Model the fold of this input.
Amino acid sequence: MLNLRLSRPKALLLEVGVVFLLVLATVFGVPPLLTAAGQAYRINLLGRFLALAIAALGVDLIWGFTGLLSLGQGIFFALGGYSLAMHLQLQIPTGQLPDFFSLYGVSQLPWFWYPYYSFGFTLAAVVLLPALTAALLGYLVFRNRIRGVYFAILTQAALIVFFNFFNGQQKLINGTNGLKTDTTELFGQLVSSQPIQSAFYTCTVVLVAVAYFLCRWLTSGRFGRILVAVRDDETRLRFSGYNPTGFKVVVFAIAAALVGVAGALYTVQSGIITPDAMSIAFSIDMVIWVAVGGRGTLVGAILGALLVEFARNNLSDQFPEFWLFLQGALFLLVVTVLPGGVIGWVRTWRIFPPPTVTTYPSLEVDLEPEDDQQDSRD
Amino acid sequence: MLSVLLDTLFDGISIGSVLLLAALGLAIVFGLMGVINMAHGELMMIGAYTMYLVQNSFGGLGGVWFESYIFLALPTAFLVAALGGLMLERWVIRYLYGRPLETLLATWGVSLILQQFVRSVNWAMVIGLVLWGALILTGRLLVWPRWGNLPWMSRVWVIAAGALAWGVGALAGERFGLALEEPWFGAEGVDVNAPDWLQGGIPLGDFQLPASRLFIISLTSICLLGLYLFLQKSPWGLRIRAVTQNRSMSACLGIPTGTVDALTFALGSGLAGVAGCAVSLLGSVDPNLGQEYIVNTFMVVVVGGVGNLVGSVVAAMTIGILQDLFSSGILPLLLGDKNPLTGFFNFFATDSMAKVIVFALIIIFLQVRPAGMFPQKGRSVDA
Amino acid sequence: MKRQFSRRKFLLYGGATLGTTMLLKACGSQPTPEAQSSASPTTSASPSSTIKVGILHSLSGTMAISEKTVVDAEQMAIDEINAAGGVLGMQIEAVVEDGASDWPTFAAKAKKLIEQDKVVTVFGCWTSASRKAVLPVFESEKNMLWYPVQYEGQECSKYVFYTGAVPNQQIEPAVTWLLKNKGKQFFLVGSDYVFPRTANTIIKGQLQAQGGTTVGEDYLPLGATEVTPIIAKIRAALPNGGVIFNTLNGDSNVAFFKQLKGSGITPDKWPVMSVSIAEQEVQSIGTSYLDGQYASWNYFMSIDSPANKKFVSDFQAKYGANRVTDDPMEAAYIAVYLWKQAVEKAGTASDLEKVRAAALGQSFNAPEGKVTLEDNHHLAKFVRIGEVQPSGQFSVVYASPNAVKPQPWSQFVASTKGYTCNWSLDRPDAGKFKMGST
Done:
C-alpha cells in the first residue's frame, strides 16, 4: 500500500504503525463520532461491512493474486455463519431444543448439532470447516487441472449443491428461514445487546487487521511469488519444476477460512443467517468488491467491500430502481475502463509508485497463453 | 410398472429438452469463443417478453390469429434476441476476447442491467435513451472529428449527452405523469397465454401428455436439426467450425474471424430467444426468468463437452432424466420398502434434494472427465 | 484525502453510466461514511408538526414484486389521512426504506428507522422470515410494527400488530369448505419455507380431526419452475380426482398452473385451493389457466360494498386504471388507519405504551367489512372463498356471516393446542398461555 521508497524494514514498520493507528481510530474514534452524529445504527453497518471486507481479502487472495475465480465463496461464508449461529441457538437450558424444531415436529437434536455445544469446537469449526471443505474440493479440482472458467463453473455447481441442501433441510437447519442469533444469550447478555455488539465490532476490526497482515505475509515472500506465477502462467511454472496443486489447495483453503470467519462475524452482527448467503449473486458480489477496489491489492479489497456495500445501502433506498443499473454498470466499468479498480486508478496519479511484483510486462490483461484455450488434455 | 417408467422417461425428456433448447445457443457461443455469457438467461427473457408483445398485438385479434400467434412469435423472438446479442457482442464482448473471466463478470453486469431494464422500462426512459443514442451518434459523426478525436472530449460529450437525455426523459415523465411513467411490463410477471391447442394435452391411457411439452420437444428437435445442417452444410457453418477448431489458422486462411464471432453470437442469442418463447409456455414470464435457467444450462454445456452438439444433447437428457428420477420419488417406489437404498432415495425425493444430488454427481463426473463427455481432441499443452 | 478521492471515484463511475446525474445527486446527498460522521444531524431536527412513521418493504430483489403494491396502499392511506388534516393536527411523514428482499437488511433498516429517524411506528414486512428477522429489533427497542400479510400464526408479539389473516381466518375455513363441498382426499403442495410448512402441519391436523386424508405432500424451493415431478406425484396419489391445497408462492404458481392444465388435471375433478394467489397474481399467471380454481382470502377486489368501491376507485385514480387491489394491500391500508385511530384515542403518537393500549378494540370500516383489533393484536376479519372468473376477478362462493375472531396459536397443532394470547392482561406470559389459566 505505502510503497514510498523507503528501505524495507522502515516501510514495514510504517505500515504496521499506520494499520495500528487505523484500528485504534476505528475501534475508539468512529463509534463515538457516529453516535454523536445520531447515526449510531451505522456502527453496526460498518461492523458488518468490515466483516465482509475480510471475505473480500480472501477472494483477493485467490482471484487477485492466484487468478482462481471462485463463484462459490458463499459456501464458506455460510459454513462459518451457520457454525456460530448453531452454537448460539444452543445457548438454552439443557434438554430443550431450539424452538424452530417444534415447527417441524422434531423432538431429537440432529447428531451434528451436538459438538456445537462446545464454544471451543465452534470457534475451530468457524475456521476449519470452511478450510477443510475448500481443501477437499480444491484438491480434487486442482489435481485434475481444472482451471479458468471451468473452475468458476464448478464452484458454482458446488454452491448450488450446498444452497439446495441448506434450503431443503427444514428439519435439520431450518431451511429457508435460516438461524437467528439475536435472541439468544452469550455470557449472560442478549447477543443483540449493546455491549456484546460492541465486542463483536471490536473483534471484527482487529480481525480485519489480522487478516490483512496474514494476506500481506502470504503474498510478499516466495509463496506470494508462486501465487502470482500461477496466475500469470501456470504452464511455465509447471515446467520450472513446481507442482502448483499444493499451493493452490493451500491458498484456496486459507481464503475459505477467511471467508468463513467473515461469515461468522457478519452473522452475529446482522442477527440472522439464511441460505441466501449462498445465492449466486452474493458470491459474485464478493468478486466485484475486489474488482472495484483493485484486484491484487489488499487495501483495494477492503476498500472495495466498504465502498460497494455502503453505496448499495444508501442508494437502494433512494433509487431502488437504479441500484441494479448502477451495479451492472459497475461490473462493466471495472472490467473495461478501470481494470485496476480504485487503487489501480489512484496509482496512475504516480504519487505512490506501483509495486513491481509481476512476471509479465503487462498485467492489465488477464493473460491466457493462447486465445483458443479449449480444454484438450487427452 | 412399465407405464410408470415410460411416464418418468417422458417427463425426464421433457425437462431435458427445455434444458437443451436453453443450452444450444450457449453451447456454440462457449464452444467457439470460450465466452461465458452470463446474460444468456436474460436473452431468453427478452425472447419471452417478445412473445408477450406479439401475443398482445396479434392474440387480441382472436380466432385463428390467437391460435397461431406463436408461429409469428418464434421468429420474432429469434430476431429480437439475436439483435440484442449482436449489440452485446459489438459493444462489450468484443473488447474482452481472450479474457474469459472478465467476460463472465461483464456479462453478469449486463444481465443485471437487462433485468432492471425490463422492470422499469417506460416511455420516459425510452425517450431518454433514444435521445442519448442520437446525441452520441451526432457527436461521433459531426462533432468529434472537428475536435481531432480527443478521447477526453468524446467522453465529456457522452456524459453531457447522457445528463441531457436523462433530464429530458425525467422532465417529460414529470410533465405527462402516468402516461409516460407507467412501466411497460413492471416487476410483476406478465401473462403469456398459450393458444388453446397448446394448453391442453393428448390423452394416452390413464394420463395425458401435455401439448406444450410435446411442442417443446419438437421445437428442440427442429432447432437442433437446423443448427446441425447450418453448421455442417452451409459455408458460414464451415467457417464457424474452422474458427472453433483453430482460430489463428482460420484467420491466416482469410476467414473474417470478427464477423464469424458476431454471427455466432447472434445465432446463439437468437436460439436463446426461441428458448425463452418455449419456456413461457411452461412457467412465468418475469424479469427473473433467466436466472432460473442460467446455471443449469452451463452445466449442460460443460458436462457435454465444449463445442460439441452431441455432447450437449446427451448431457441435457441425462441431467433431465436424473432430476426427474430423483425428485419424483419413483426410485423408492420401485425398490419397495424393504430395500436399504429406499431410505436414501427417499431423502433425495424432493426438488431441492434432487438438485443436490444431481449437481453433486456433475461435480464428481467432472473429476473423472474434466473436459466433459465428448472432449475436443487437440495437442495443446495447456488445458 | 480519502474523502476526496472516493468522491471523484463516484464522479468517474457516474460519467460513463446512464445514471450519471442520478449518481451526482447521490454523491451530493450521500457522502461516504467518514464524511457523514462529521455532517450535522439534520434528520432528527425535523419540525414538530409532523409525525414520522416508517415503511419497510422490499423495493428491490425478488420480493419487490409483491411488496411494492403494499407500499402503494400504505402511502395512499397516509396521503388520505394527511389530506384530511393529519393525525392530532400533525402531518404524517413516511420514511421509506428498502429491505432488498434480504433478511439481515430488514433488521438493519428497522434499527435505522427506529434509532436514527425516530419513527413512532413501522408498517412493513411481507415474508415471515423478514418479520422474524426484525422482531428482535422491535422487541429490544420497544417499538411498534404493523404487519399486513396473512401468515402461519404461531406468534403473538407485544410489539407487533398483525392485520393479515391467521390460519383460522383463511386456511382452516377453506379446508372445512373443501371437505364439505369438494372431497376428502387432499394433496398438499407448497413452497419450501416456513409458511407452507406450518400451514400444512395445521391442515394435516385438521384433516385428521375432521375426517379427511392427506394423500401426499410436496415442496418446491422458492422460485423453482420445474414442476413436472410434483405433477407426476399428484397423478399417482390422486388418480381419480381429489383436492389440491396449494401454498406455493410467487413464480412457482405460474409454472404449476400452466403445467397442471397441460397434464389434464382440471378443476372439475381436481379443484385447487390457493392461499397465496390474489388478484395481482391472477394477472401474471393468466386467467385462462386459473379459470374455475379457488382461493381463500379476507378481501376480494370484487366485493360489492361502498367502502370497497371507494378504495378501488381511489387506488386506480392514484396509480393507474389497470391496477388491481388485493388482500395484503387492503390489510396494509387498514393498518395505517387503525394506527391513526389508536394515536387519536391515546392523544399521543410517541408514548407507545399508550398507543398500544388504545389500539385494542379499535374498529374500522374496511373494504372487506367492519374489522376489529382484538386483544391478541390480531384482527377479527371476514373469511371469503372466491372462484376465479375469466375476467380475472373472483366471484365469492362463500363468505363468513360475521368477522371471525383470530386464534394466533393453532388449535390443530399438538404443541400449541389450548394456548391463547391476550395483551390486555397484565401477566408476563400474556403472549402465550394456556386457556383458562389465570
User: Anything to note?
Assistant: Chain C has 15 helices and 17 strands. Residues 1-47 of chain C have pLDDT under 50 and may be disordered.
